[in-house]
TrEMBL record:
Residues passing through the membrane, by range: none
Keywords, alphabetical: Nucleus
One GO CC term, this protein: spliceosomal complex
Top-level taxon of the source organism: Eukaryota
Stated name of the protein: G10 protein
InterPro entries in UniProt: BUD31
GO biological processes: mRNA splicing, via spliceosome
Compartments reported by the entry: Nucleus
Family: Belongs to the BUD31 (G10) family.
PANTHER family: PROTEIN BUD31 HOMOLOG 1-LIKE (PTHR19411:SF8), PROTEIN BUD31-RELATED (PTHR19411)
Length: 145
């Protein structure tokens, strides 16, 4: 007889400390996904989802690298379970990308002339005062701001 597979996940030590915040961010993510898109441009519909995903990844990143409040095992668990974006956190660790909002902003294939997003330009070098990113809606994620 074959073994019965169960979906029981073993949570690492310290999970009960971060679970309420991650559950709250999951609720925000569901609300952002269920919001109506009436009167919004096509790209604007995804902005709330990008913001919540950024918050969730930043929360896990700050707990591990900033405050050292969670273990490596719990950090890896959060990355494996999809609570944080591994690639975005890898960019945050590099100089010049500490405030990066999303990975779309630095991918040259998503922009004209194979450059990066306008939100990556420092504020003192911009010609106009306010720039909104088309991909995620941020108003500036350059580290020099």
């Amino acid at each position: 007889m074959p073994r019965v597979k169960t979906n029981r996940i073993k949570y690492p030590e310290g999970w009960e400390l971060i679970e309420p915040t991650l559950a709250e961010l999951d609720v925000k993510m569901r609300e952002a996904g269920n919001d109506s898109n009436d009167g919004k441009r096509k790209c604007e519909a995804l902005w709330p989802i990008f913001k919540v995903a950024h918050q969730r990844s930043r929360y896990v990143y700050d707990l591990y690298y900033g405050r050292n409040e969670i273990s490596k095992e719990l950090y890896e668990f959060c990355l494996e379970q999809g609570y944080a974006d591994r690639n975005l956190i890898a960019k945050w660790k590099k100089p010049g990308y500490e405030r990066l909002c999303c990975l779309h902003c630095i991918q040259p294939r998503d922009h004209n002339f194979a450059t990066t997003c306008a939100c990556r330009v420092p504020k003192h070098l911009r010609e106009t005062a306010v720039i909104e990113c088309v991909h995620c809606g941020c108003q500036g994620c350059a580290s020099g701001d």
